[in-house]
């Protein structure tokens, strides 16, 4: 039974630390997704949580709390003899030191560097550059502290590790590419250790370290009308080299250190439909009619299957550009599925009334493990679509061509997984 509810929007790293602390203490906290800009502005919400910010916590016995670190602390303290809060006063104080550092040193840098990338605020190159320099000082301090230590305080995971790791995860996922993170070997090792703890992984999902430093797309901030996906309208960065081998990296990627057993999808009978060829063809030709025709002429229903994906919390979406960012985040976490999947997820509708849905083509007749293992998979309903049905085929075409109107709704934005 859960000890209470935590109100938030989906995939909030400030919530992750609470859920991880709960998992270590064998407690459950119910995550409740609210509609941002609406529910958190209501008088009944403000009466309990006057700042109107999330996450907020409401215990079963009517105790209200906000500020994510306070909530995480509360949950961490609920188990007698917990190892999360240190073995003595000195350790307890050190844990507070790191938690405070995360909020005072890392959070402002995240706002300056990552928020423009997520499309939350306009890009300001001078601020980004300063954030990139500022964080190096903090990373050096953290790295140095870990020279001879596995965890930040004492010998086991504490709330300090949980808060620091969740404060750093968006950096590692999006901007700490191999060369940026190279100088911080101890920190990288620690981060890898923490995010691969089963209780942490269950909350964060698999953490795939950035291969390339993400940059803010001007388009996200200015929010112009999205263009149809003509060959040259597709972001260049999405064009993958024809060959992308897992062990091609110049830096060791901790995310790839797991044993690379043979993927069952590689053992399927050879297909006449080559997904890589399709992706290249789609990138280099007009979608309608050229690529669409090519697809159906070459598609192999024995070796592949078609799936419709619909975001489960469409009624909670607010700004269309934020919905689009959710899709971007999902695709980022699908990195390992590239070899077996192609997809188009689009945002349909308008601000405060939009939906994320689309189609995927998967190798084989099921949803690949590389997709079901992705952190955001649970946020989508995947349903097998009849690839022999002309109506379904036309709907799929509309999604990959980003038609102006899809299923009766206005196309707002879209992303292609390829
Ligand atoms: N220090 C706070 C930060 C909370 C915060 O800034 N929440 C943002 C989302 S990440 C929010 O709810 N903003 C909504 C608003 O300001 O209306 C914490 O850790 O809980």
TrEMBL record:
Region (Disordered): 219-268
Pfam families hit by this protein: EF1G (PF00647), GST_C (PF00043), GST_N (PF02798)
Domain EF-1-gamma C-terminal positions: 261-418
Chain's gene name: EF1GAMMA
Keywords: Elongation factor, Protein biosynthesis
SUPFAM superfamilies: eEF1-gamma domain, GST C-terminal domain-like, Thioredoxin-like
Species name: Rhizophlyctis rosea
GO cellular component: cytoplasm; nucleus
Keyword Translocase: no
Protein name per the record: Elongation factor 1-gamma 1
Keyword Protein biosynthesis appears in the UniProt entry: yes
GO molecular function: translation elongation factor activity
Domain GST C-terminal: 88-221
Source superkingdom: Eukaryota
Biased composition, class Basic and acidic residues, residue ranges: 219-245
Residues annotated as domain GST N-terminal: 2-83
């Amino acid at each position: 039974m859960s000890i209470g509810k935590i109100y938030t929007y989906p995939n909030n790293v400030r919530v992750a630390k609470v859920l991880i602390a709960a998992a270590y203490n064998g407690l459950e906290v119910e995550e409740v997704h609210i509609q941002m800009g609406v529910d958190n502005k209501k008088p009944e919400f403000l009466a309990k949580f006057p700042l109107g910010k999330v996450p907020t916590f409401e215990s079963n016995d009517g105790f209200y709390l906000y500020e994510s670190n306070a909530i995480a602390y509360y949950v961490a303290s609920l188990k007698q003899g917990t190892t999360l809060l240190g073995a003595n006063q000195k350790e307890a104080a050190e844990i507070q030191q790191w938690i405070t550092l995360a909020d005072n040193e890392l959070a402002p840098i995240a706002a300056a560097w990552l928020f423009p990338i997520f499309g939350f605020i306009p890009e300001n190159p001078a601020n980004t550059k300063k954030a990139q320099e500022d964080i190096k000082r903090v990373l050096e301090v953290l790295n140095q502290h870990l020279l001879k230590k596995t965890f930040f305080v004492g010998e086991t995971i504490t709330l300090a590790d949980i808060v620091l790791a969740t404060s750093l995860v968006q950096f590692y996922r999006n901007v700490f590419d191999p060369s940026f993170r190279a100088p911080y070997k101890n920190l990288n090792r620690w981060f890898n250790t923490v995010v691969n703890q089963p209780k942490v992984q269950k909350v964060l999902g698999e953490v795939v370290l950035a291969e390339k430093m993400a940059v803010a797309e001007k388009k996200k901030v200015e929010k112009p009308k999205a263009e149809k996906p003509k060959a040259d309208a597709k972001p260049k960065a999405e064009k993958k080299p024809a060959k992308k081998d897992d062990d091609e990296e110049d830096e060791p990627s901790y995310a790839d250190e797991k044993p690379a057993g043979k993927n069952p999808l590689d053992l399927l009978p050879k297909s006449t439909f080559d997904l890589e060829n399709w992706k290249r063809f789609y990138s280099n030709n007009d979608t309608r009619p050229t690529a669409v025709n090519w697809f159906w002429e070459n598609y192999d229903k024995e070796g592949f299957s078609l799936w419709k994906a619909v975001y489960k919390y469409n009624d909670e979406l607010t700004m269309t550009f934020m919905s689009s960012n959710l899709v971007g985040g999902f695709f980022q976490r699908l990195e390992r599925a590239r070899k077996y999947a192609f997809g188009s997820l689009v945002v349909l509708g308008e601000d405060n009334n939009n939906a994320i849905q689309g189609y995927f083509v998967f190798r084989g007749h099921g949803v690949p493990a590389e997709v079901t293992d992705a952190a955001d998979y649970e946020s989508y309903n995947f349903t097998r679509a009849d690839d022999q049905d002309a109506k379904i085929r036309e709907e799929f075409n509309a999604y990959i061509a980003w038609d102006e109107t899809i299923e009766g709704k206005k196309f707002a934005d879209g992303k292609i997984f390829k």
